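During the reporting period the student researcher (J.K.) took over the structure-prediction task from the postdoctoral fellow and processed the backlog of single-chain submissions. One of the processed entries is reproduced below for the supervisory committee.
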Amino acid sequence: MIYKVSRWLGLTIFSLLIIIPTAIVVLGTFKTDLEIYDSPMALPLNWTLDNYRRLLDDGEILTNFKNSIFVTSLSVLITLILASMVSFAIARMMNVTGKVLFVLFSLGLAIPGQVNIIPIYLLFNDLGLTNTYHGLIAVNVVATLPISVFILTSFFKEIPNEMYEVASIDGATHFKVYRSIALPLSKPALGATSIFLFVICWNDLLFPLLLITESAKKTLPLALLDYRGEYATSFSMIFTAVLVASIPMVIMYLAMQKSFVAGLTAGAVKG
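J.K. obtained the following structure tokens:
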């Protein structure tokens, strides 16, 4: 009885911590800044779509939205390709080399991105990669590669070695085994990893803030800072932009939901 009550209480508190801020943001998109300051939790006195109209009338925010789509999509695609290749190689190495490589990539998870901002900026500035899409994509790929390898390696190890051995006996090369056997069987893992990567890259603010200064090349999270003034902040516009910015992530999850759930539960049951 005590366990059920404590579990119900914990889930209720956790749900409220998610629902209340979400409700404030959604309701705030239909309010003026004065209403948000006066009563953030109350319903709007006059429901209005002015904030959405102002957001759509601002041509820059649409450009920033396209920039985020472009940078995030290419970053996720390149990372998945590289990480799947590395993970397949590590999973196939049943020796010390494979374990060492896996540990080295795993160590990348222990190094915060904030630690490297100065050397990254100096390096990218010397290479002329600041204010460029490919520079931002490159740093996204490097930053997310360790977690991708960490996730995908465990899935590739779940594939029976007998399948690899049969393909090798039939004369298949390592790349053909990777392309024809490993990739098709790891679609759930790739789907789950792609969602993680999409959320990470889409919400990233550190690297765009470090490398991008031109307004036309800003990503959406960086563009949201423009609504914060020196003496006043337009929370109604920030809430509206945040809500619009979350739409691609919701669509991504809905589209990849089956793969995401299958990826999380893969390997949970054996035999």
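The committee noted the following: The mean pLDDT is 84.
J.K. will present the remaining backlog at the next meeting.
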